[in-house]
Each structure stands twice: as C-alpha cells, then as structure tokens.
UniProtKB/TrEMBL annotation:
This is Molybdopterin-dependent oxidoreductase. One of its GO terms (molecular function) is oxidoreductase activity. It holds the Pfam family MoCoBD_2. InterPro entries: Ald_Oxase/Xan_DH_a/b, Ald_Oxase/Xan_DH_a/b_sf, Ald_Oxase/xanthine_DH-like, AldOxase/xan_DH_MoCoBD1, AldOxase/xan_DH_MoCoBD2, AldOxase/xan_DH_Mopterin-bd_sf. Residues 38-144 form the Aldehyde oxidase/xanthine dehydrogenase a/b hammerhead domain. Residues 1-33 are annotated as: Disordered. Residues 1-10 have a biased composition (Polar residues). It comes from the Bacteria. SUPFAM superfamilies: CO dehydrogenase molybdoprotein N-domain-like, Molybdenum cofactor-binding domain.
Length: 769
C-alpha cells in the first residue's frame, strides 16, 4: 500500500489446524467468526492512512429539479478545506452504472432522485468536510416528480434514454385457452433496503504513477475498478481496488456513486481521503429492491390444475437502469412459479421514475412474483374448496418440465418432495391462555390485545430462483492454489460477503490435497476477476475454479510418486494427510511427498452458456435453478392487526451439503430477511422523498421478531452441471417466506392480503366477519 497507508485485513487461517474438521461436508467454522464475535474484525470504516483527509458529499434535497447554478466558492474558502469537486471535475466518462452506464457521477443539469450526489469535499476534519459540503450553494428549479410507475409511460422523459428501460412480452402456448375457474388479483410489493450492517466506508490513496488505490468493502472489485478507471480517465492498471472487511452483503455492497467521488478527491488533493457514510446517506445513495405492481389472472380446470396464467408486472426502477433488466427477466420467467403451466402470457416492464434507485437485492424479481402467484394459488384453493397444500401438489413441476420461457428444467426439481415435507411436519403447540404466556401473543407482553382476539393461520409458499447470471452473462472465475512448506494458499478474487466462500475454499483444498493449514489471500484487482458475490456464483464458479486448481496441484504432487512406482496418479488417493496406493504398496504423508517443494496451479471455471430471451420471452436464459418450500404458522390479533410469525418450516433443494453449519445459518438468515420483507421493512417515500432514512423509520426484524425456524428437509440430489453438485441456498428462502407468511395471514383472517409488507389494517377483521 502506498503513501504509508495502513489497512488491516482479516486472517483466513482460523483456529489451529488440529482443532478443525476437514474437507467438504464438515461443519468447518467461518474463518472470520471469532474476530467478528470479539469485535476485532477490521471493517472498511476502520481504515487509516498518514496525512488522511476526510470527505463529505452534498446530495440533492429534491427528487426532481433542474440545476440552475452551483457555487462552490464559499466551501473552497473555508479553513481546512482542501478540494471541492463537481461534474466539472470528472476527467473521464461522466456516466456509470452496473447494468447500463446511465447514471452521472455528479448531477450537472438535472437531479433525478432524492439524495443524488451534486458535489464532494475533502477537508482535514470530518466536521469541516460536512460543513463545507453544506456551504455549496445550489440553485434549483424544482420540477414535479414522476413517482407513479404507471404514469411513467406517458410522462415527459426523465432521462435521455427515455422512461422505458425494458419490456418483455412472454408468449407461451395457446392464447385462447380458458379454464373452468378463474381468479384475479392486484398486488403491490414495497421498497426493501439491503440495510447492510455497516454503512458504506472507504479510503482512496493516490499513487506515485498518477493512479489511485481504493480500499472499500466491494463485492465486485473488478467491475468497480473498471468504472472508476473510466470516470477518472485512467488506464485500468493505474486503478486498484482492494477489498477490505465486508460487513455482510445481501446486494451489491458498494455503490459506484460512493466510490467515485472518493477517488476523485484523492487524485485532486494528492492525499489519502476517507469517507464514512452516515446511515441516512447510505439509505439515500445505494439501490433498493424494485417496488412492483402485479396484476394476475389464473385459469384452472375443475380439478384445480392450471390451464393458463396471465400477468402484468411493472417494476419501478427509479431514475437509472442499474440491474433492472436482469430483475425483470427473472420476474417474467418465474411469474408462474414452480408449477406446470401449459399456457402463459406475461407482460413485464421496468420504467424510470423519480423514486429512489432500484437494483440488485437478493432474490430480485423472483421474490415479487412469488408473493403474487402464491396469493393466486390461495384464491384458487378457496374457490374450489380444496386444501391449499393439496392444490399446490396437483400443479408442482418436476425435472423435465418446461418453464414459460420454453427452457426445460434439466436440473433436479424435487418440488413435490419439498412441499410434502413441510406439509407433514408437526404443527407447533398453541399458546396457553395465561398471563405468564403473554409474550407468545402478537405485539409482545405490552402490545397484545385480548388472547381471545388471536387467530392462528397456516400458509404455504413455493419459490424458485436462478443461479449465476442469466441471458448470456459470461460467468467465469479464476483461482490459483499454491503450496509451500506444507501450507496452502488460495488466491481468488471472490469476495467473502458472509456466504462462506473463504471457508469453502479451505475445505476444497483440504479435501483435495490433504493439507490442514489453508489460507485465503485478501482480494484485490491485481488478481484475475471472479465476478460479483451474488446468486450463489462463488460457491459454483469460484469454488469450481479452486477445485480445478487444487486438482492440478494434486497431479503435480502425485506424478513423481506414481512414476517411481510405475502406476498412474488415478491409483493414488489422499486422505487424512496421507497418500496411499490402491494396493497398499505406497504409503507416505503429504508432507514427506512435498519435501519442501513449491507447487502451484491456476484454473478457470465457466458454466455452460445461456442466451437472451427473444421477442416472445423465449430462450434458455438460466444456467440452473434452486427450489424451496415453506410453511408458515402465524398468530394474528384480528382487532389490532398485529402479526407474530410463530414458526417457519423450510424444505430446500440444496444439491449437496458442503458445510452443514454454514448452510443452516444461510437458510435461517434468509428466512429472517423474508420475515422483514413480509411484516416490517418498507422504505417509505412521499412524492419521491425518503421518509425517515434511518433504522428507526426502516424497521428491521430483530431477534425478538425471528420465529422458530425448522429446517425439516434438505434434498441432496446433485446438479450434475454444478461443481460439487451444490446449489445456492441464501436467496430462495428470502423469495419464498414472505409469500408463505402472507398466505398464513390470509388463512387466519380471511382477508385478501395483497400487499407486502403486510399493514396492520390488512389483518384486521371487522366484528362479525
């Protein structure tokens, strides 16, 4: 690191080797668990460098306005201020964006959302920087914001690229097909925030060659480097992104609009510059889940088997495209859920508004449609007088069935087995009607009404997600495995965001090479790219690259022995640190075989290619899919509308369990996130202005809100095209559990419950109902 900047990076070694279980399938603890528990884990906010300056960003107070003038003179004249930058100081490409470069580094002529960056300041003290940012005088001509996505079709263009980002008209089957039973519904999904544990923070350090190093909690460092280099007008090799301790991520962890002003200030001042966002700035700056409006019509025959699904799906992207195209593709492709639907006609749109920006959040697209199609299944069951679980069982898909996109489901799809597991799992006991048990009631001991007003409901949700990128995305990862002095090191730019990749990499090397002590090197852009840390891609693609590199090192290790004994390496095996031959003639330790040698190999993993959806929404767009069934049990106070999730039973298609402890933790975390989406999490806006951008106004579920989570079945039917046969596990419980909770509230109250999060008035039952 240049300019004597110092940063701590978490050790990946973990506990002493002799204390660890080994290899794939073992419950190996996270390498970071102890440091995070003890409070010694170095996060991005802990960074420091000699001669450090502090940054602050001025953001728009309006969701839509024309910029008449920007006066930075007062800010520049303040004592301690070292630099002020605006759009005029961006030497390279002024636009950036993850999916599409349409977002300005700094607004120049117009602001399109509340909190859009206007200017940034570097000063010798954080308070000075904030005061200087506030001293930048911006004259606005306030414009009427477009906040209703349905109005975006007719509104004046909010962006030079127009208001329509993408339209997907999916056509599958016979448009004239009709069913004996028809149900319709209108559904709304709110704006969810990824709400990272730690707000955005980072350090930019100028280099002697005129370049810059960015130390940030990035989840996709190479994409971030490329965007920074373009904005700074530099070659890519003069910009380096170093990943610091990531405090969890359920979306794209770092927004370019945060990193780019930081780097510009470091280049302009020639000094290291640090920026630590407040929670309010974090809410204003990064992307959120797409608020979605969905209209559905389901046709079924007299037995409840689906005949046709018609739907209209409208995603509110905010003012910039980001990953809205990918989210829309998932929403349209999975609009019918994991059910056999011979005829489907789906219209999907993603449009621009002046609402907060939307982008990738875990389960994007799939979560919104799951809530809608499962509500439709409940309506069908009620109209037919059939048990909701039974109706679902009559329609579930299996391996070999065809999606509405025309793609065959070639991966394991044990949906019926999953549903059967949660349906047959014993229900929890009812709470006792005594004061000592009041804590079991909705609202807690001080918030519950009379116990007699509480009704229990049981609901179901079946969900699916795609793994890796889609529609032709080039999913590739590169890894290097080195062995020296009996210690193995893994170099891979796959960022550990809490999904357990660094632990998995250690397990892969332990199993393949029989070496106990395995380190995972810190991530930076000097390493080959590994892609973004989302959709389970690092378990699949980066884990596959590590496995291939480790097997190449294994061959290097075994070849001399095989040659000496006149046999092939396939006849030798490594287990428990020992190398043995099939006939027992050879038996030695890995340490003895290494004999001080340094071995290394680099390998890539690239899944089979996919293709974009065509003009009718058809195409093999996805590499693989994962499925989940959830049964929710809730208690609802029908007078107050308060809801308590009593229990969530989960059955999931995981392919193969690589680490039982981490897999269970990922499922439990996903379910808890789903509980928040169902009941509490909604980033509210008023005419485009974010109301209460803090963790008081945006209510995350706490330990008191988390239900009993029962993982009742893990189906280990390996996906033959995936390394290790494993599937992603984090996203699909997030997708499915909100739908199951809403289903349970419908069962308890008889109310339609057509909006997430569920508002109290939606769960109130009028007396006599």
């Amino acid at each position: 690191m240049t300019n004597e900047a110092a940063t701590a990076t978490p050790s990946e070694a973990g506990p002493a080797p002799e204390q660890l279980p080994h290899g794939l399938g073992a419950p190996l603890p996270s390498a970071e668990a102890r440091a995070k528990t003890e409070g010694t884990f170095p996060y991005a906010a802990d960074l420091w460098a000699e001669g450090l300056l502090w940054a602050a960003v001025l953001r728009s107070p309006h969701p839509h306005a024309r910029i008449v003038s920007i006066d930075t003179s007062h800010a520049r004249e303040m004592p301690g201020v070292r630099a002020v930058v605006t759009h005029e100081d961006v030497p390279g490409t002024p636009l950036h964006g993850r999916g599409q470069a349409d977002r300005p580094v700094f607004a120049s002529e117009v602001v399109r959302h509340h909190g859009e960056p206007i200017a940034a300041v570097a000063a010798d003290h954080p308070d000075t920087a904030r005061m200087a940012a506030a001293a930048v005088i911006v004259e606005y001509e306030v414009l009427d914001p477009v906040t209703d996505p349905e109005q975006a079709f007719e509104a004046e263009p909010l962006h030079p690229d127009g208001n329509l980002i993408r339209h997907i008209p999916l056509r599958h089957g016979d448009p004239d097909a009709l069913g004996d039973i028809v149900v319709e519904g209108l559904y709304r999904i709110g704006r969810h925030d990824p709400a990272p544990i730690g707000a955005e923070a980072g350090l930019a350090v100028p280099r002697p060659d005129g370049g810059v190093e960015l130390y940030v909690a990035s989840t996709d460092p190479h994409t971030d480097r490329d965007a920074a280099a373009a904005a700074f007008g530099l070659e890519r090799d003069r910009v380096k992104v170093v990943v610091t301790g990531v405090p969890g991520a359920t979306a794209d962890r770092e927004d370019h609009g945060f990193q780019l002003p930081l780097g510009l200030l470091a280049l302009k001042t020639g000094c290291p510059v640090k920026l630590t966002a407040t929670r309010e700035e974090s809410f204003l700056g990064h992307v959120h889940r797409h608020p979605t409006l969905l209209r559905y019509r389901h046709h079924a025959d007299a037995e409840g088997r689906l005949v046709k699904v018609e739907a209209q799906i409208l995603l509110d992207a905010g003012p910039y495209a980001d990953t809205s195209s990918e989210a829309l593709a998932a929403a349209v492709a999975f609009a019918c859920g994991p059910y056999v639907v011979p005829n489907a006609f789906i219209e999907g749109w993603a449009v621009r508004t002046n609402n907060p920006p939307s982008g990738h959040v875990r389960g994007e697209g799939a979560m919104q449609v799951c809530a809608a199609y499962e509500a439709q299944m409940d309506k069908l069951a009620k109209k037919l007088g059939v048990d909701p679980a039974e109706l679902r069982m009559r329609n579930v898909m299996s391996t070999g069935d065809v999606l509405p996109t025309g793609q065959s489901v070639t991966c394991p799809a044990p949906v019926a087995e999953l549903l059967e597991a949660v349906r047959d799992f014993p229900l929890p006991a009812l709470p006792k009607d005594t004061p000592e048990e009041d804590w079991l009631l909705p609202g807690g001991p001080e918030g519950a009404g009379e116990p007699g007003a509480v009704r229990r409901g049981v609901g179901y949700g079946l969900g699916m997600v795609h793994m890796l990128g889609a529609e032709g995305a080039d999913e590739v990862s590169t890894a290097t495995v080195k062995v020296h002095d009996g210690v193995a090191t893994v170099l891979c730019a796959a960022v550990e965001t809490g999904q357990g990749f660094s632990t998995l990499a250690r397990q892969i090397v332990q199993e393949t090479l029989g070496i106990d002590e395995v380190h995972v090197a810190p991530v930076d852009t000097d390493q080959p790219p590994a892609g973004a840390g989302c959709r389970g891609r690092h378990t699949w693609v980066s884990g596959g690259a590590v496995e291939r590199a480790a097997k190449m090192v294994r061959t290097q290790l075994l070849q001399p022995l095989a040659h000496k004994f006149g046999m092939s390496t396939e006849l030798l095996q490594i287990a428990d640190g020992k190398i043995t031959s099939y006939d027992g003639v050879l038996s030695t330790t890995v340490t003895e075989a290494l004999d001080g040698k340094e071995l290394w190999a680099t390998a890539q993993c690239r899944p089979h290619p996919t293709e974009p959806l065509d003009g009718a929404g058809q195409g093999d767009a996805f590499v693989g899919m994962a499925f989940c069934a959830v049964r929710a049990v809730v208690d609802v106070d029908i007078e107050l509308g308060s809801v308590r999730v009593v229990e969530i039973a989960v059955a999931q298609d995981v392919g193969r369990v690589l680490n039982p402890a981490q897999l269970a933790a990922r499922i439990e975390a996903g379910v808890t996130q789903g509980v928040g989406a169902a009941l509490t999490e909604n980033l509210r806006t008023a005419r485009g202005l974010i109301r209460h951008p803090d963790l008081t106004g945006y209510a995350l579920p706490t330990a008191l809100d988390a239900p009993d989570i029962r993982i009742v079945k893990l189906v280990e039917e390996r996906d033959v095209v995936a390394p290790f046969g494993a599937k992603a596990v984090s996203a699909v419980p997030v997708v499915t559990s909100p739908a199951a909770i809403a289903s349970a509230v419908r069962a308890a109250t008889g109310r339609p419950v057509n909006r997430l999060p569920i508002r109290p008035q939606a769960a109130v039952v009028v007396s006599g109902a």
